[in-house]
């Protein structure tokens, strides 16, 4: 019998092999990531593994796919449910600054710490929003709805095997092999000719809309290895002649603790695709929609920490607008140095980031009563804090990478009011709860604090 985590690991590995064949530059990205990680481990020793073992980091991937309807999204949830992956977080990429990306998204991933340690594969999954009149007028929406209703992304056999794997949390060897074969095929790039006129109609709205609603299948949009030094990787990829997007998205590189997520990618490549013209002829063309992304993960922040991050981004935007010739990275570093604590200890003491806590072996032994607050316990040496890695995503960063890899700017009518989508709506569309990532991190932290309270004889978990 093949367990869910083994299915997940095998699926991630096979997707990686497939995507490397489809997009050879991705293989280069993986190779360079491995080189950088090995050098970081030699240079930094155990500190390099503070946010995950080198084995986990090297194997780690996140993929990205795009679907068109709630029905398709529910089918995706069944496939990833077979792999022990649940929807976590709601991301509205429409609302980021300057976005012409008409999607809302969630990420399917393991949620249990042990499952994440075994294999932390994630899939960032975006759903088109045809109901948003800023992007789609009534006529285009009707055409799009008809097109999407007339396609089948996933074969019934795959979905039946997925349901069995989710219910039983494992599959027999033969069924597991069949499931993996069908699942990987479902996310391969289809050779079927694309209706050129229809694709271009949607592309005028957004390249992402065309990639979702202009084809009769879905495909892996990008696959992302994890790297320990994303700035060094950016330099090495550029040195190999691979064109990268202009910036690394997310927090700046600075002297303090790594927080949240930093991402970048090489630019979408022109891939040969068969195109059907209005007169029925099939011609050879090229589309730029798929790219290779890479990520560096930091510490998960609390809601208070996230509010600070968002405030600093707003300040950075203001300063960049006032000083158009200034280096944005330098401005960001100055802001972070001024406003963000420079140590993990202070992040934990100020409840800006999530940690697991344990009683320190060398804690005071003078018979004194331990304090009851986290900051005091840390200061006086009673407990130690271990950072919890950020397992999720940033909508502004995701939209920035999507936008940086589009061939055109797209269009958006800001005079119209956007359609309302939120986490509750997405949960209803999925037929399963979209989990709150903050609650997942907080629960893990609380469990560790409860253990600290028991060991130190405190009445309640420290706060």
From TrEMBL:
Keyword Oxidoreductase: yes
Source taxon at top rank: Bacteria
InterPro entries linked to this entry: HGLS, YdcJ_bac-like
Keyword terms: Dioxygenase, Iron, Oxidoreductase
Cofactor names: Fe(2+)
Family of this protein: Belongs to the 2-oxoadipate dioxygenase/decarboxylase family.
Protein name: 2-oxoadipate dioxygenase/decarboxylase
């Amino acid at each position: 019998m093949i367990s869910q985590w083994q299915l997940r690991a095998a699926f991630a590995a096979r997707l990686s092999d497939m995507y490397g064949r489809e997009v050879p530059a991705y293989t280069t990205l993986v190779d360079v990531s491995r080189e950088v990680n090995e050098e970081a481990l030699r240079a930094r020793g155990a500190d390099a593994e503070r946010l995950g073992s080198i084995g986990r980091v090297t194997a780690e991937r996140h993929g990205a796919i795009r679907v068109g309807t709630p029905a398709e999204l529910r089918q995706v949830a069944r496939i990833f449910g077979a792999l022990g992956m649940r929807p976590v977080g709601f991301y509205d990429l429409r609302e980021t600054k300057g976005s012409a990306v008409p999607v809302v998204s969630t990420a399917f991933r393991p949620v249990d710490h042990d499952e994440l340690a075994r294999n932390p594969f994630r899939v960032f999954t975006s759903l088109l929003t045809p109901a948003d009149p800023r992007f789609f007028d009534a006529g285009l929406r009707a055409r799009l709805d008809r097109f999407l209703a007339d396609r089948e992304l996933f074969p019934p056999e795959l979905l039946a095997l997925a349901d069995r794997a989710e219910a039983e949390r494992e599959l027999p060897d033969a069924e597991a092999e069949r499931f993996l074969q069908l699942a990987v095929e479902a996310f391969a790039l289809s050779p079927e000719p694309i209706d050129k006129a229809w694709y271009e109609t949607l592309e005028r709205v957004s390249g992402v809309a065309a990639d979702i609603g202009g084809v009769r299948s879905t495909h892996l949009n990008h696959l992302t290895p994890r790297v320990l030094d994303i700035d060094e990787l950016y330099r090495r990829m550029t040195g190999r002649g691979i064109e990268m997007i202009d910036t690394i998205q997310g927090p700046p590189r600075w002297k303090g603790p790594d927080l949240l997520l930093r991402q970048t990618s090489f630019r979408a490549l022109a891939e040969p695709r068969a195109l059907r013209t209005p007169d029925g002829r099939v011609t050879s063309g090229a589309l730029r929609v798929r790219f290779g992304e890479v990520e560096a993960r930091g510490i998960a922040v609390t809601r208070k920490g996230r509010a600070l991050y968002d405030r600093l981004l707003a300040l950075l935007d203001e300063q960049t607008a006032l000083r158009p010739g200034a280096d944005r990275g330098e401005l960001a570093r100055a802001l972070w140095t001024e406003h963000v604590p420079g140590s993990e200890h202070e992040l934990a003491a100020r409840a800006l980031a999530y940690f697991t806590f344990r009683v320190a072996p060398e804690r005071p032994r003078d018979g004194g009563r331990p304090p009851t607050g986290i900051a005091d316990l840390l200061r006086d040496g009673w407990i130690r804090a271990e950072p919890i890695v950020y397992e999720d995503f940033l909508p502004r960063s995701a939209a920035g990478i999507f936008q940086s890899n589009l061939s055109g700017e797209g269009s958006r009518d800001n005079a119209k009011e956007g359609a309302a989508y939120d986490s509750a709506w997405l949960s209803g569309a999925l037929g399963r709860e979209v989990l709150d990532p903050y609650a997942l991190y907080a629960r893990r932290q609380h469990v560790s604090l409860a253990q600290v309270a028991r060991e130190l004889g405190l009445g309640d978990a420290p706060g």
